[in-house]
């Protein structure tokens, strides 16, 4: 059956002849904008694909346009209360007030009644009624101009549109479709509903009149070709919605015609006397369908084909969304490769919104199994692109792409290869939960569902047999272990939670697999299965994803909270009896016992009492003690201490039992520590076993001291004795020193906690201070230890302790703690700064691929260095250390920017908030220190040519940019900084009689980086100040020093600085042009400051349109050839690409051309173009052939306008292989 759209009638040419087919805003068309109304028929035929060429060449009888009769037919009696007004004369000069727009904007009236009222008014006076409809669409575009009867009679559509464009003098770039505010919020929906209702109410009569619809389509086609964005956007939306409604009407006609045809055939088979004469009705339906097809053909060729590649992404999205609707509702005609190629090409669109609409349109097609047979050619051509969109940089696009692949997987068997699926599997570990969840659903349908199919009975899912559950967990284990994509099962469980949550919550199946004696699970599989058990329990009890996975939800619903509580109770009741058994079986393996101990945090611990399960609590406490005594790994000890902390809550009735078990365990560990400590203090040598036992005992006590108050066991004194011996003799192994330091630290903090809760005596405060000071001295001694781990541990504990006992501790009404405030001495501050230089600011080795063990160690070392630097910076900001010490950090800002840039930047920002003047002096001090070090190392000769000096200039530039755009606020600071810098540069003079320049004079070049931040008046004063200072320095006549020349040039009044240049780089999205802006010293951004010295850049052109055109016959021919592609080109993957134009992009300096602000008619032109297409970097980039000729650019230039500044991301799927639109 041939497509109805391919049987279009010949009067389509007439319907389109009044509109312009040259796309004023398209980056492909090069026809001059002054000829928008000429040659439309030929250009349209040359500008189209082969879809309609055959149908246009057919010799079908034209459908004559039906003008309304001269006599107005008798209208129906107006409804009571109707807004219909009687037209007194068709020759009135002005049309009546348009109430359609107000009613649609209000969105309060019934659209059907509104359309019926308009139909009544149209029947009274057809010309006036049609003008009312036309002015409704004009007013919906935001234009205050109207189409009068005289204009309608004497002017063509293109002339009317040109006249309306000249009257488009709005003050804002907003128009109804995009205008902000509650009054416009529902306008687009009401507007679309009006168009739909209009076609629905006219489908049985007025739709086939010829006059209103043909002229309306012609008007919308012309408006969609306008340079004014508001016209183009609104008319395209109206045309596409009109097309969608016509498609529904055509579908109904087609179905009705098929029914009539079957009835006709049935009647023909009857005898002559039994036949019913229904052939006339069938012929009438055929004529109606041809008229509908003609209108659809006109809209598709006149609007869609041009606008689907418009520079405005909203317009492209509208076109793609509507063509998807056509394909779904009328698949017989539209679901062909001739139409599918438009969606396929647009999959490469630059903008997120358009790509989302493409994928959603494809989801509607692939979701219907009956339609997939027609998508085979399209799938083979664009499958790779659809698979690659899983890695799209926009998460919503990637999510929709994965869901599209799920539909392909379900409805088109064998299309997705293993390689295609393997590209989706890693996404289950993505940080975005929506994307990971979609990938988890894909994984479930690909790997798990075929083997573990859940059969539905009675509309409800029935639990599968234990064998099916076992198969599911085995497949899950196999995927996780064999894929080697990730080390944490929590993210895999979270990804599968939405689609396989019921299976993952089968804790009975999980525990039975783990407790089986004859299980065939390896060590890795057992560990993975335990992690799956713990992850699913945590997911069910806590209800939030793992750390680092982003969700857009703020909280759980009441239903989800109830489900969470039920799952928590069910989990607790099942695992409380089994947890001691699991601990007993895996107690020897630290990797397995750690997550099992973490299970206790998922329990509802009240069930121990309410369920009479105290005996299982006793068993758990026994197993916990055995695990703690058996292991010394920090992870196991931390998990055990936390589990015991949860049980030792005084609110529980079993608190006494848990507290007794804790006391037993700590007594056992303390006795061991006392015995081993005596052996260490008395003997001069310990074997490895004794050292290991003592270190293990200290680690266990340290872990429990972190979570429990062990003050009554008095561990402070013996640990101090141990540390003192280590400092005095150096005979204590470092494995023992590390946990001993932590024990003393926790002892001091617990003592402080007791004192802070109640009014402490002076003796208690004095005792705590003495302990704290003694421990600080021990840590200070450890900073010079030979072992790096001891040094770093001492630094971390010392920085934390100094921060705790800083002046901040008395804030909040705790003035009684003032005797505990401690300020470190100068020697300690110096040692802390020296430690930072030796252990943090060191040049790291280059990382490889990141997979080797060495790379992982380097990353861990980097994290440790970042922790050390953050601790030092906190001491600076909280006033513990002198702020001048920050110069040791700031001077490494540029060199170590990749490793510590965020920490140093935050420190600099906070320091400036504390004291702006002092912070500026510290920045200058950092530059002085670096300069002095370089001078001492290389001498004054050729200093400014060294690579290290160039790095110093970059650092000075970064410091200057850190002051921000507040030029007036920083005025005094900048002047002070320059004066201090000039003094330093001339602080050391050359020997008397020597003509050599002062050794510090090159510092002026660093100072010149701050010159753009100065006001013109301050530059003059600084030039005078520099001249006065140079009078005391002897200089050879006629040979000025280079640094002085450079610095003077930076202070020259002709320098293009922020406050002297009224023309700043334009905003990338300025809605309107308001004429030359006044100089504003406050509105200077950091990026502008970097380009202040580019004084040759011309200003932005005042009058700008996105459709700046020049005739280009060759380009027009190229575009015709491009549109004359065949289905063979589509099958081979041909796309409308203008590759020869891609290399002609020019830099941003060509975006600006001189203009004359005082030119004639400037104000009127500005107002006229206030709603015209603006020169936006994200939409269009203008190519400059010469100073007098400007040409169009294709959509590729629009796509890359923003990447010209940030560079092309070769890993971004949306920036590669982007086609022209």
From TrEMBL:
Q: Name the major location.
A: nucleus
Question: Where along the chain is composition biased (Low complexity)?
Answer: 15-26, 1085-1094
Q: Provide ranges: composition bias, Polar residues.
A: 1055-1066, 1194-1205
Q: Where is this region: Disordered?
A: 1-98, 1055-1108, 1121-1140, 1174-1221
Q: Which Pfam families match?
A: HEAT_SCC3-SA (PF24571), SCD (PF21581), STAG (PF08514)
Compartment(s) of residence: Chromosome; Nucleus; Chromosome, Centromere
Supply the PANTHER family for this chain.
COHESIN SUBUNIT SA-3 (PTHR11199:SF8), STROMAL ANTIGEN (PTHR11199)
Q: Name one GO biological process term.
A: meiotic cell cycle
Q: Which GO terms describe its molecular function?
A: chromatin binding
Q: Can you give the residue ranges of the SCD domain?
A: 304-389
Q: Biased-composition ranges for Basic and acidic residues?
A: 1073-1084
Name of protein: Cohesin subunit SA
Keywords tagged on the record: Cell cycle, Cell division, Chromosome, Chromosome partition, Meiosis, Nucleus, Phosphoprotein
């Amino acid at each position: 059956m041939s497509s109805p759209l391919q049987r279009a009638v010949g009067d389509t040419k007439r319907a389109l002849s009044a509109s312009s087919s040259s796309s004023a805003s398209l980056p492909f068309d090069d026809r001059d904008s002054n000829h928008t109304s000429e040659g439309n028929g030929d250009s349209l035929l040359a500008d189209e694909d082969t879809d309609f060429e055959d149908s246009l060449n057919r010799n079908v009888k034209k459908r004559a346009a039906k003008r309304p009769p001269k006599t107005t037919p008798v209208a129906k009696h107006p409804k009571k209360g109707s807004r219909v007004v009687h037209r007194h004369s068709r020759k009135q000069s002005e049309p009546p007030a348009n109430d359609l727009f107000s009613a649609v904007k209000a969105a309060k009236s019934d659209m059907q009644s509104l359309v019926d009222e308009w139909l009544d008014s149209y029947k009274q006076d057809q010309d006036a009624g049609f003008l009312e409809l036309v002015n409704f669409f004009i007013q919906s575009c935001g234009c205050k101009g109207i189409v009068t009867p005289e204009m309608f009679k004497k002017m063509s559509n293109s002339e009317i549109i040109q006249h309306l464009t000249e009257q488009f003098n709005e003050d804002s770039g907003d128009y109804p479709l995009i205008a902000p505010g509650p009054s416009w919020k529902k306008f687009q929906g009401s507007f679309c509903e009006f168009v739909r209702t209009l076609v629905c109410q006219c489908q049985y009569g007025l739709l086939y009149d010829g006059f209103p619809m043909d002229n309306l389509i012609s008007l919308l086609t012309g408006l969609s070709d306008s340079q004014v964005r508001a016209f183009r956007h609104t008319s395209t939306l109206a045309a596409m919605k009109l097309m969608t409604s016509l498609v529904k009407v055509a579908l109904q006609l087609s179905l009705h015609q098929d029914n009539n045809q079957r009835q006709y055939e049935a009647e023909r088979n009857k005898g002559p006397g039994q036949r019913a004469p229904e052939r006339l009705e069938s012929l009438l339906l055929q004529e109606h369908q041809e008229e509908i097809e003609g209108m659809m053909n006109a809209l598709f060729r006149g609007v869609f084909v041009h606008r689907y590649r418009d520079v405005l992404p909203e317009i492209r999205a509208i076109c793609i969304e509507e063509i998807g609707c056509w394909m779904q509702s009328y698949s017989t005609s539209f679901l062909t490769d001739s139409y599918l190629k438009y969606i396929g090409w647009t999959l490469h669109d630059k903008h997120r919104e358009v790509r989302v609409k493409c994928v959603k349109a494809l989801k509607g097609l692939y979701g219907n199994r009956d339609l997939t047979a027609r998508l085979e050619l399209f799938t083979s051509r664009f499958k790779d692109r659809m698979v690659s969109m899983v890695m799209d940089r926009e998460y919503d696009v990637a999510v929709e792409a994965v869901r599209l692949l799920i539909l392909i997987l379900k409805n088109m068997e064998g299309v997705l290869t293993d390689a295609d699926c393997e590209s989706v599997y890693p996404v289950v570990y993505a940080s975005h939960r929506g994307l990971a969840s979609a990938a988890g659903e894909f994984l479930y349908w690909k790997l798990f569902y075929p083997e573990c199919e859940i059969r539905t009975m009675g509309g409800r899912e029935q639990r599968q047999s234990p064998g099916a559950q076992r198969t599911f967990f085995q497949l899950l284990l196999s995927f996780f272990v064999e894929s080697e994509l990730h080390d944490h099962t929590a993210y895999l469980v979270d990804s599968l939670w939405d689609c396989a949550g019921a299976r993952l919550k089968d804790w009975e199946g999980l525990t039975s697999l783990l407790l089986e004696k004859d299980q065939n699970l390896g060590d890795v599989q057992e560990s993975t299965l335990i992690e799956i058990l713990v992850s699913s329990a945590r997911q069910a009890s806590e209800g939030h994803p793992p750390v680092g996975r982003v969700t857009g939800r703020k909280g759980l619903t009441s239903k989800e909270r109830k489900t969470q509580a039920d799952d928590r109770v069910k989990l607790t009741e099942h695992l409380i009896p089994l947890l001691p058994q699991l601990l007993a079986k895996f107690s020897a393996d630290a990797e397995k016992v750690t997550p099992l101990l973490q299970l206790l945090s998922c329990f509802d611990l009240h069930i121990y009492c309410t369920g009479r399960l105290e005996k299982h609590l006793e068993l758990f406490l026994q197993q916990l003690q055995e695990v703690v005594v058996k292991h010394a790994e920090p992870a196991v000890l931390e998990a055990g201490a936390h589990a015991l902390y949860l049980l030792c809550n005084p609110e529980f009735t079993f608190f006494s039992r848990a507290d007794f078990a804790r006391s037993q365990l700590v007594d056992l560990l303390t006795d061991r520590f006392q015995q081993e400590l005596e052996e260490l203090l008395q003997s001069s040598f310990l074997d490895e076993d004794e050292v290991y036992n003592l270190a293990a005992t200290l680690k266990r006590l340290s872990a429990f001291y972190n979570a429990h108050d062990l003050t009554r066991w008095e561990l402070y004194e013996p640990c101090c004795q141990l540390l003192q011996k280590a400092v005095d003799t150096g005979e204590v192994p470092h494995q023992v020193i590390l946990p001993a330091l932590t024990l003393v630290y926790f002892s001091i903090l617990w003592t402080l906690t007791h004192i802070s809760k109640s009014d402490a005596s002076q003796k208690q405060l004095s005792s705590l201070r003495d302990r704290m000071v003694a421990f600080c001295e021990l840590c200070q001694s450890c900073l010079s230890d030979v072992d790096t781990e001891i040094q770093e541990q001492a630094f971390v504990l010392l920085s934390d302790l100094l921060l705790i006992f800083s002046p901040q501790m008395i804030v909040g009404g705790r003035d009684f703690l003032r005797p505990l405030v401690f300020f470190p001495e100068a020697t300690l501050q110096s040692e802390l700064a020296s430690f930072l230089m030796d252990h943090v600011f060191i040049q790291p080795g280059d990382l490889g691929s990141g997979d080797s063990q060495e790379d992982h160690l380097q990353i861990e070392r980097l994290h440790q260095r970042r922790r050390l630097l953050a601790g030092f910076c906190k001491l600076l900001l909280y006033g513990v250390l002198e702020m001048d010490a920050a110069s040791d950090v700031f001077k490494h800002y540029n060199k170590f920017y990749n490793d510590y840039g965020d920490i140093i930047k935050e420190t600099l920002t906070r320091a400036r908030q504390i004291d702006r003047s002092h912070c500026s002096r510290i920045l200058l001090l950092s530059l002085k220190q670096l300069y002095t070090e370089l001078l001492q190392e290389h001498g004054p000769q050729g200093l400014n040519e060294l690579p290290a000096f160039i790095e110093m200039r970059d650092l000075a530039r970064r410091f200057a940019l850190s002051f921000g755009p507040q030029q007036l606020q920083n005025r005094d600071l900048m002047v002070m900084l320059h004066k201090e810098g000039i003094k330093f540069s001339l602080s050391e003079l050359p020997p008397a009689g020597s003509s050599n320049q002062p050794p510090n004079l090159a510092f002026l070049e660093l100072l010149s980086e701050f010159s753009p931040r100065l006001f013109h008046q301050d530059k003059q004063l600084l030039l005078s100040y520099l001249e006065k200072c140079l009078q005391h320095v002897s200089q050879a006549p006629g040979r000025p020093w280079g640094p002085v020349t450079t610095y003077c040039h930076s202070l020259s009044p002709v320098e293009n600085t922020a406050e002297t240049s009224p023309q700043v780089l334009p905003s990338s999205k300025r809605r309107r042009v308001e004429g030359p802006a006044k100089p504003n010293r406050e509105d200077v951004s950091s990026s502008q400051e970097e380009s202040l010295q580019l004084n040759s850049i011309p200003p932005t052109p005042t009058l700008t349109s996105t459709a700046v055109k020049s005739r280009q016959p060759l380009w027009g021919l190229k575009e015709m050839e491009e549109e004359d592609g065949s289905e063979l080109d589509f099958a081979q993957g041909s796309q409308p690409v203008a590759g020869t134009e891609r290399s002609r992009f020019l830099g941003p300096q060509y975006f600006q051309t001189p203009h004359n602000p005082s030119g004639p008619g400037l104000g009127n032109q500005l107002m006229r173009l206030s709603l015209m297409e603006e020169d936006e970097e994200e939409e269009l980039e203008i190519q400059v052939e010469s100073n007098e000729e400007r040409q169009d650019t294709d959509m590729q230039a629009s796509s890359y306008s923003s990447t010209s500044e940030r560079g092309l991301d070769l890993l971004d799927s949306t920036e590669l292989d982007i086609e022209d639109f």
